[in-house]
Design a protein that fits this description.
Length: 106
């Protein structure tokens, strides 16, 4: 079975966490989805790129979640969530070796 890149896991966590919270009306349930995906992505980041890169990407993941809230007031909720998810995915892809392809970002 193919491994899902951490960039995809992180983006899915941001989008999925918001979707779960919105569609169930239970923000804590969305937080569980967000945290679970973040933990999975963090583990992959650590394995693929080391602790320092993983810490930076975890910080970006959390900042993306927090930053989507004020951004949503300007552009709308879904566009804000997709924007930060795309940003986190792009940073993850680049920082952890382009989705696992050796030599890509190094």
């Amino acid at each position: 079975m193919a491994k899902v890149p951490a960039s995809v896991v992180a983006a899915t966590g941001l989008v999925g966490g918001y979707g779960v919270a919105r569609w169930t009306g239970k923000r804590p349930l969305g937080g569980v989805a967000l945290a679970a995906a973040g933990a999975c992505a963090a583990r992959q980041w650590q394995q693929e790129a080391g602790g320092k890169v993983a810490a930076g990407l975890i910080g970006l993941y959390v900042a993306g979640f927090a930053g989507s809230h004020p951004l949503a007031k300007k552009v709308g909720a879904w566009p804000a969530v997709f924007a930060v998810a795309g940003g986190v995915a792009a940073a993850s892809w680049a920082a952890s070796g382009c989705g696992g392809r050796r030599g890509c970002a190094k």
